[in-house]
Amino acid sequence: MTKTAAECTTMAEIRENIDRVDEALMALFSERWSFIRRAAEIKAGLGIPADVPERVRQVRDNARRNAEAQGLDGAFYEDIWAALIGHAIAYEKAKLGEL
To answer: Boundaries of each Chorismate mutase domain copy (predicted)?
Structure first.
């Protein structure tokens, strides 16, 4: 059953809701990845390289700012986004033949 953290009174409820949120996060990551795949296709047609440092910095800054706006540790979430970005760049490099 969907509950807020404050509404949970047992560890079973906490775990159930953490699992629910994790599943929702994976659905969002899947959607995000669909845009990475499409970006590789568009970049190939335009001759844009996989790694665009200005965009990487912008996405990392956005992650930090968005995390902090939610009361989260901006540096931690920027690091997570750095890993996401690195994985996406490696994928795009393979698709673009940049390896």
So the answer is: 5-96
Instruction: Quote the CA–CA distance of 79 and 81 in Å, as a whole number.
Output: 5
Residue ranges covered by each domain of the chain:
5-96
SS3 98: coil
Phi-psi region of 97 (alpha: psi -120 to 50; beta: other; left: phi over 0): left
| Residue 21: both structure tokens together | 């949120």
What is the average pLDDT across 26-49?
Answer: 97
Q: CB of 81 within 8 A of CB of 29?
A: no
Say if CB 63 and CB 78 are below 8 A apart: yes
In this structure, the number of other CB atoms found within 10 A of the CB of residue 79 comes to 14
The answer to pTM > 0.85 is: yes
Burial 67-78 (b: 16+ CB within 10 A, else e): beeeeeebeebb
